[in-house]
Amino acid sequence: MRQIIFSVFILLTVTGCVSRLPEDELAHTRERVEHYLINEAMTQSEMNILSQYMLQLANMEKYLIEFRIWNQPGYEKIEKAFMADCKAWDKRAEAEEQKPSEFEGGSMAPCDHNLRMTFFVQKRIEELKNKWQKK
């Protein structure tokens, strides 16, 4: 995961996209992929691939925000509560991942799963920013 994040950071640096934080660039890219998925993807295979890519982008964004929280001044004061919150979220994420799709057994199931998990991770990103990250 760290190697992927490093690669994305290098890519953003080389392309001149470092005017914003890397997690902001990931969110922007995820939004553009979502727009393409909803408006232009033609085949179910394309939709499955794009939805998987969206989920990976969301997870990378979440990790970068967690990294910023771990390294913010005064983290040691919130460490126990933050780690407990992360463990609780991991359990909820695991439970969410196990939920069957309404399209189970069909070609739409992977896309449905990826989109549900992407939106679940997006909620966590907002929670991390609002509850734990210092402004």
Q: Give me the number of helical elements.
A: 5
Distance between the termini: 26 Å
Largest sheet, if any?
none
Taken from the alpha-carbon principal axes, the silhouette is globular
**How many domains make up the 3D coordinates?**
1
Mean pLDDT: 87
Low-confidence stretches: none
Structural category is mainly alpha
Helix amount, in percent?
A: over 70%
Task: Please describe the topology of this protein.
Layout: H1 2-14, H2 22-39, H3 44-70, H4 75-98, H5 109-132
Helix pairs in contact: 2-3, 3-5, 4-5
Can you offer a commentary on this structure?
The protein is an all-alpha fold. The protein has one domain. It contains five helices and no strands. The longest helix is centred in the middle third of the chain and has 27 residues, at 44-70. It is globular, with a radius of gyration of 16 Å.
Short description:
This protein has 135 residues and is mostly helical. The chain has one domain.
Which short descriptors sum up this protein?
5 helices, 135 residues, mainly alpha
